[in-house]
Amino acid sequence: MTGLGSPGVVPRDDAPRGDVPRGDVPRGETGRLDVVVTGTSSDAHTWNLIYLELLLTEWGNRVTNLGPCVPDALLLDHCTARVPDLIVVSSVNGHGANDGLRLIGAIRETAELAATPVVIGGKLGTLGDGSAAWGPRLRDAGYDAVFDDSVGVLQFHGFLEKLRAEARC
Amino acid sequence: MAESTRGLAPTSFGGFVRAAGELVVQPRMGFSSPERMRRGLDATRAADATTVGTLTIDSYTRVGDLPAARRALDEGVDLNGYPLVTHGPQRTREMLDGVLGPEFPVQVRHGSAAPQDIVRALTEAGLHATEGGPVSYCLPYGRTPLEESVRNWAESCRILTDGVGDGAEPHLESFGGCMLGQLCPPGLLVALSLLEGMFFAQHGVRSVSLSYAQQIDPEQDAEAVRALRALADELLPGVDRHIVIYTYMGVHPATRSGARALQEAAVRLAVRTGAERLIVKTTAEARRIPTIAQNVAALEDCAATARRTEPGAAPRDARGSAVYAEARALIDAVLDLGPDLGDALLTAFRRGWLDVPYCLHPDNASRSASFIDERGRLAWSSIGSMPLGHVVTARPAAALTSGGLLEALHHTAARLDLGELTRAPSGEPYPIRDGAM
Q1: InterPro entries given for it (chain B) (predicted)?
Q2: Per the CB < 8 Å rule, is A128 touching B358?
């Protein structure tokens, strides 16, 4: 086997995704966060979501991956039934900023989710300059952070660490 | 065969491609505005290459969110494709007037699991060719239940065959050779492409194309395309058909030389295996939706490469390859499930006899997994319940990590960006031609 690229079985049981039970340890003692990863309503891309699921799990969080093309209503239903510690919106199809603006409006209008941390990242516009063009608007609209594709995961990791530290307080 | 050549000359996508005499090249192209879309089609037609045109539909129309498409147009938000349904048949006819014709057929590419509105709109606009499929436009692309997608696609075949006017030949291309773009072993891609082509034929479509997306190993890819053709000859008699290669759909090299080398490999794959059509990518693909000029440059580069590539020698028996054995085993198992292919596909996915690795759709069993073996080929680390035990020895691999996934996803891009494969056989670097913005 080559050193590069030998993915094995994606760790996954046969239960519907998203039905992972909470553990016995209260999240405050471990800093473990319940994270929902979701694509936007019009974005069919999957690899970004699988990657984020693996990454967030390795960082010690519980992840529910809603998959691609998630209608706003489904995300809201899911997250109000069990409010997560963080919602991660990922999009690479060029509609991310536009979909993301609509979505964060709906999230912030939902009482249970008014204060839930929500971040968005990926390739957010059609012109390859998503962060510069859209970052301020997305933050003004209610996202706690915007991670453009070009930034890498360090900033995202920093954001997670801060959130976990706050959860431990 | 009489039935497969009927009416092909003037208005047949399949007939045009098969009569072209050289590799037909096609962009992936879609813009919000009819004026820009028209400029794109004009430029595609005028390119120094044998081309067909593309209307790639935007993502809102694809998922049936027509209000969002309307709002985007009203607010001047740039869409990632042409909103065919929202612009409507009249405006689309005007946009196509004088560019669409027997020498320049245009295909609608969309990605919808509920494409009835799109198919109706394209026939009303005077078009007759599109692509997709009940599995390939459902499983990787969202949450529509597979059962609904099968019903939708059966109805869409009827809309297409009923709606296309006299003298034109409805054409459907299966997207089955592309599931998730990368890391799917070719046997499953070939099987799905064939099964969808047979589904279209069962629902009255007499002209189809079968797709295969370039993966990571040129020899394995060539085996796959030859297997696809051999299986099509066996299983689609009397149906007009050709093979379309998609240039690599996975993570694209970020360097122009890397993207160029990958594109040239796709051209060579198509020419050497006798595939009739190629979906082209551009050097801008890794960063943004390409401009018209970038598309034209890519089309012309591909045509030039194709013209100086020798067709492959008559292949060894295509039925001797591992890819053929896998595809054949999967297809036979599905066909044994009953005469109605839609029902058979549903049963096959329910039982996990067809199981797309890494696909998150609730109707996919998700017990299969793939890896890149020591020869740089795609292989199975788990076959789940797929009836492949007699032709494949799965090799369990370590649990997947985010780093491992990234490495696998970037396998091709990383090698090409490093320049390993960016030198022509002569040792000279490939010339880089950048499309002006």
Answers
A1: Cbl-dep_enz_cat (IPR016176), Glu_mut_E (IPR006396)
A2: no
Classify domain B13-308 at the CATH topology level: TIM Barrel (3.20.20)
Beta-carbon pairs below 8 A across chains A and B = 154
- What CA–CA distance (Å, rounded) separates B264 from B259? 9
Domain boundaries, chain A: 34-148
Q: Is any Cβ of chain A less than 8 angstroms from the Cβ of B289?
A: yes
Shortest Cα distance from B309 to chain A (angstroms)? 31
Residue extents of the structural domains in chain B: 13-308
CB B366 within 8 A of CB B359: yes
Name the token pair of B46: 């005028």
- pLDDT for residue A92: 85
* Model pLDDT for residues B111-120, shown as the tens digit of each residue: 899 999 999 9
Residues present in chain B in total: 437
**Taking CB atoms and an 8 Å limit, are B408 and A7 in contact across chains?**
yes
- Residue B309 has a pLDDT of 95
Closest approach of B139 to chain A, Cα-based (Å): 10
- CA separation for the pair B194, B103 (Å, rounded): 28
Q: Do B372 and A44 touch (CB under 8 A)?
A: no
What's at A74, amino acid-wise? L
Residues A103 and B137: their CA atoms lie apart, in Å, by: 24
Q: Which of B56, B57, B59 to mutate to test the interface with A (most CBs of A within 10 A)?
A: B59
CATH number corresponding to A34-148: 3.40.50.280
